[in-house]
Write a structure and sequence with these properties.
alpha/beta, 7-stranded parallel sheet, Rossmann fold, 8-stranded mixed sheet, Glycosyltransferase
Length: 811
């Protein structure tokens, strides 16, 4: 996976994708992480070499920090390179660290590039108790650290700690012989792949091109080289033209070189590097300088340009230092002193043998050296633990979690399908965390708060519940937690969501998500959600509710989620047929078992204690509870009130969009409108009711519904009379009538029987634990947790009696 580091911060969704990709690589027992302290300038160049050495043989992933003072983009030569990496902005590192800890990210082997303190910290965060550590050296980093501003994390004050941490690492690699001797390291050159170059053209009569491509720094001696090339051109009577391409620091070097007649150019992409090098006649890797302070660098540093030149078959002009003494016998390498520069040019130009890439400069040769070092590697020293996980982060450990992402802001109030699934699973597996989550935009929050004065609207009970969910203080009688993420903008939700997951330790490795579309702002967090095991519950069909302008959005969300989810659950076969006709599911989805049809059930009556003194003690009481804004047959309700004044019709639910129709009913003496009520209040009201009704019209909306209220009524023993709508089938305690006459006759008969007996009518139904819909849904959830590498499925002895058979098909 290639993620470009741009000027802006990496989106939270992309961060989680990167981390999960890294974890996938880390799970491989032969994988290797490369840790680099900085990515916006040249330190990542060596780390990229190490990555390429490993990636040719084993799974590899590169990690690095980004310190903004060096820039916010990936180092320009690597900007278009495709390699697996995570670049961590220094200011955001703890968010990454928390994700690493949450998903259990640790590599079996880590190759640390450069002994800088940030490198050690990064390695500590992705290592485990058995991780092997190898430290790579390619220059005198302690010297460079001391040239940095005093109190930088990678500056002089950090050198003693970095040196101390280095002593705990037993395996080392180094780019030069001098570093190898000092660090007891295996030599890993700046390895390259051989480039399919063309035969050099005959010498240009106008000029021989001498080129340098790389980081242009004072200690590279390129100003001195430019002067020396002019002198050599006069000595040899050969026109020589010097080309310098790369990253100039300080920028004044570019102007100085231009004044000396040098052809200059800014950074060269890695993809273009070898093609450009092959246009040179000779490749210069540096030039001796007169500065005494440079000796501490050149003694250890070996230019990566040596391998570049050999890879394209061009002679490499290499200034003498102790770090390159051992290269004198390599064909194509011409080591020179400032006094022998002209001779080195002449010898290089007259070389007759073909230049090839030596084995030690190849990826295979470098890997052999790495493999030798890995054999000496040991596990992290105790000092690494001090840089690693903060024990204060352990307060809320990662655990098995079921998250139900609800599409509205009213979960936990009415006992809807989302609540039934949550409480059923929590009852089955008490050790699991079960969270019902909602997103709430600030504008929605304010709109709900501004409607709390309305009697027929549900804001008066929804608004305080949202506040409790935002405060993380809403937990129901089953132990289900209800949470809301309040976000101020659509764009902020991405970061708010990832922060919530970290705060709650909800990890893709230990969690399953159930989504109930259509969810507002889902596109903002889709990249995050896609990293989880997801079940999509098509609890209803939002197309009939949609306007012509919103249908495209609704369709795109349904399509995205049905394509991404591991399992699709529909509330009715009618809904399945619709989505199949729409082209969102296929016969193969259905035949494979990916699609399930599970109707509603109700759990909740058994934990609701009766409250004394509830009204309705006399007369015949009929109840309807539900959303009264849509699909209500208001004429049928009015006809019920005309049967007898001794019949009291109790209406419960929101009706703010049907005030006129509601007003005509409440004008009658035998109608009581309670307004919206919480589930617990409705249950207590049902205790004193004789009959429950479902007066729905059969329209495009009701066709896709599967009324859960029927199951609530019956769970309280109240018989039900319903109109004929899809999703309901006549059963014990449920009578269905296709026309008004039959419906009203059934109501009248129930009233007459009540008058004769004088008792509240009740039905006796099977217990909730035996409900087949509940069993089917719980089985899907059990399989979701069982079907992953990280989780052990719940054992039979953890499952209450009556549902243990759900586990049997799983083995």
């Amino acid at each position: 996976m290639h993620v470009r580091v741009a000027e802006q911060r990496v989106p939270a969704g992309a961060i989680l994708q990167q981390v999960m990709k890294a974890r996938q690589v880390a799970k491989r027992p032969d994988s290797v992480a490369i840790a680099c302290w900085e990515s916006s300038h040249n330190p990542i160049g060596r780390a990229h070499v190490l990555y390429n050495v490993i990636a040719k043989h084993r799974p590899a992933f590169l990690f690095s920090f980004n310190f903004s003072e060096f820039g916010t983009k990936l180092w320009a030569p690597l900007e278009n390179e495709n390699f697996d990496r995570i670049v961590i902005p220094w200011d955001d590192r703890h968010q990454y660290f928390s994700l690493f800890q949450m998903v259990g990210l640790h590599f079996p082997t880590i190759w640390l590039s450069k002994p800088r303190l940030p490198t050690f910290e990064l390695a500590a965060r992705i290592s485990g108790k058995t991780t092997k550590l190898i430290l790579d050296h390619d220059d005198n980093d302690h010297h460079f650290s001391k040239q940095t501003k005093a109190d930088r994390y990678y500056g002089p004050n950090s050198v003693p700690l970095a040196s101390y941490l280095q002593t705990g690492i037993t395996a080392h690699t180094a780019a030069s012989a001098t570093l190898a001797a000092e660090c007891d390291a295996e030599v890993v050159r700046h390895a390259r792949a051989a480039y399919q170059y063309v035969t050099p053209p005959p010498a240009d009569p106008e000029a021989i091109k001498i080129g340098f491509i790389g980081t242009v720094r004072p200690h590279k001696g390129l100003i001195e080289a430019a002067r020396a090339i002019r002198v050599s051109s006069w000595n040899l009577q050969i026109p020589l033209k010097f080309h310098v391409y790369g990253d100039f620091s300080p920028a004044s070097l570019k102007d100085e070189l231009t004044e000396l007649g040098v052809v200059v150019q800014d950074n060269v992409k890695t993809a273009d590097l070898f093609g450009l090098l092959s246009t040179f006649d000779l490749v210069l890797t540096g030039f001796p300088t007169q500065g005494v302070k440079d000796e501490s660098i050149t003694r250890y540093q070996i230019s990566s340009k040596i391998g570049d030149a050999l890879a394209v078959g061009r002679p490499a002009l290499v200034p003498y230092s102790q770090s390159v003494e051992d290269l004198d016998n390599i064909n194509g390498v011409f080591i020179f002193h400032s006094s022998t520069f002209s001779a080195a040019i002449k010898n290089a130009m007259t070389l007759k043998t073909e230049i090839g890439l030596p084995h030690q400069f190849s990826f295979d040769g470098a890997y052999e050296a790495f493999h030798a070092a890995e054999a000496k590697a040991t596990t992290p020293p105790i000092s690494f633990r001090l840089l690693g996980k903060d024990t204060s982060e352990q307060a809320l450990a990662v655990q098995n979690t079921l998250v139900l992402l609800w599409k509205q802001n009213d979960a936990g109030i009415y006992g809807r399908r989302v609540d039934q699934i949550a409480r059923s699973y929590k009852s089955l597996f008490p050790s699991f965390r079960v969270i019902v989550l909602e997103f709430c935009h600030r504008a929605t929050y304010d709109a709900i708060a501004n409607q709390t004065f309305e009697f027929s609207g549900d804001a008066k009970i929804v608004s305080p519940a949202i506040d409790r969910k935002i405060a993380r203080s809403y937990r129901d009688a089953y132990g289900v937690d209800y949470h809301t993420i309040l976000h101020s903008t659509a764009d902020s939700l991405n970061n708010d969501f990832i922060s919530y997951l970290i705060e709650q330790r909800i990890s893709p490795t230990h969690s399953t998500l159930i989504l109930f579309p259509v969810i507002r702002f889902l596109e903002q967090v889709y990249d995050i959600i896609s990293q989880f095991h997801c079940i999509i519950d098509i609890v209803d069909n939002q197309f009939p509710w949609s306007t012509e302008t919103s249908k495209k959005y609704v369709g795109s969300q349904y399509f995205s989620l049905t394509s991404m989810a591991e399992t699709l659950v529909f509330n009715s076969q009618f809904n399945v047929d619709f989505f199949k006709d729409y082209g969102m599911i296929t016969d193969q989805d259905i035949e494979s078992g990916r699609v399930s049809v599970i109707s509603n059930w109700y759990s909740g009556a058994e934990v609701q204690p009766p409250e004394a003194g509830i009204g309705c003690e006399t007369g015949f009481n009929i109840i309807y509870s539900g959303n009264m804004n849509d699909r209500i047959d208001w004429g049928l309700l009015e006809s019920i009130t005309l049967i007898s004044n001794d019949i009291t019709l109790h209406l419960v639910g929101a009706a703010r969009r049907r005030i006129d129709a509601l007003g005509r009913l409440t004008a009658r003496r035998n109608v009581v409108y309670w307004g919206p009520m919480q589930e617990s209040q409705v249950l207590n009201l049902l205790r004193s009711c004789d009959l429950a009704i479902v007066p729905h019209v059969s329209d495009e909306v009701s066709s896709y519904m599967n009324p859960l209220k029927v199951h609530m009524y019956r769970a309280m023993g109240v018989p039900v009379i319903s109109t004929d709508v899809l999703g309901l089938t006549a059963d014990e305690g449920l009578s269905i009538f296709p026309d008004h006459a039959g419906f009203l006759d059934a109501v009248k008969l129930a009233w007459e029987q009540h008058c004769l007996s004088g008792k509240v009518s009740r039905i006796d139904l099977p217990k909730d634990d035996e409900n087949p819909s509940k069993h089917a849904y719980m089985k899907i959830l059990i399989q979701s947790f069982a079907g992953r590498e990280d989780k052990k499925r719940p054992q039979n002895d953890q499952v209450p009696g009556g549902v243990r058979e759900l586990l049997l098909p799983l083995g």
